[in-house]
TrEMBL record:
Pfam families on file: Hydrolase
Record protein name field: Pyridoxal-5'-phosphate phosphatase, Alphaproteobacterial type
InterPro entries per the UniProt record, alphabetical: HAD-like_sf, HAD-SF_hydro_IA, HAD_sf, Pyr-5-nucltdase
């Protein structure tokens, strides 16, 4: 199981910064605050509810479809296919699934831009989770029930440390990805890597059967 944004591609490409700019603009327009105040509110919703959208829905009756469409309407020219990533994903036994708090349409565009969509069995996006985001354990339960995942035979790759705890609690192997990963001391993180492609290509593998 793979998170998508800032996991399958490096955070340094800046894609999520573009999304963040559109989230900021959405907050300013919706809540009627200045940019600095709106940003603080957005961060509060993110901390309290797992996603900015959840806070907007609870407190401002925002239509989730309109929000997801607007904030993900960004150029993807910063994404380039990585043959080392593709090779690393291709060599993994068993099914490969995406587990993202992003929207379905956004996931489709990103995977197409990276030219790896064909390597994944399915995408479990925020709409499939009934807008319940990671790290809420209910999102993980829905994911594994929908796809018949045995957590004890699964690994979860993710760039956000706190999102790995529910996976670990269920018995999954956990891999933290990103420049911040080597400094992590969380006991629920099994493996840490700054970049995903080399890690996948040096993994010792065994038969998934």
């Amino acid at each position: 199981m793979f998170d998508m944004d800032n996991t399958l591609y490096p955070a340094e490409c800046g894609l999520m910064g573009r999304v963040q700019d559109r989230i900021n603009a959405f907050f300013v327009r919706t809540v009627g605050m200045g940019p600095a105040e709106a940003r603080q509110l957005q961060l509060k919703y993110l901390r309290d509810h797992g996603t900015s959208l959840s806070g907007l829905m609870l407190n401002h009756r925002v239509d989730p479809g309109a929000f997801l469409d607007e904030v993900h309407r960004v150029e993807l020219d910063c994404l380039t296919p990585d043959p080392v990533l593709r090779d690393g994903l291709s060599r993994l036994p068993g099914r490969r699934l995406i587990f993202t708090n992003g929207a379905a349409a956004h996931a489709e565009r990103v995977l197409d831009a990276l030219k790896i969509a064909d390597l994944f069995h399915d995408v479990f996006h925020i709409e499939a989770s009934d807008l319940i985001p990671k790290p809420d354990p209910r999102a993980f339960t829905r994911m594994i029930e929908r796809h018949g995942v045995d957590p004890r035979r699964a690994a979860f790759f993710e760039d956000t440390e706190k999102n790995l705890k529910p996976a670990a609690d269920m018995g999954m192997a956990t891999v933290l990805v990103g420049a911040h990963a080597p400094a992590s001391t969380a006991p629920f993180v099994d493996h840490r890597t700054e970049t995903l492609p080399p890690f996948l290509n040096r993994l010792p593998l065994r038969d998934a059967a």
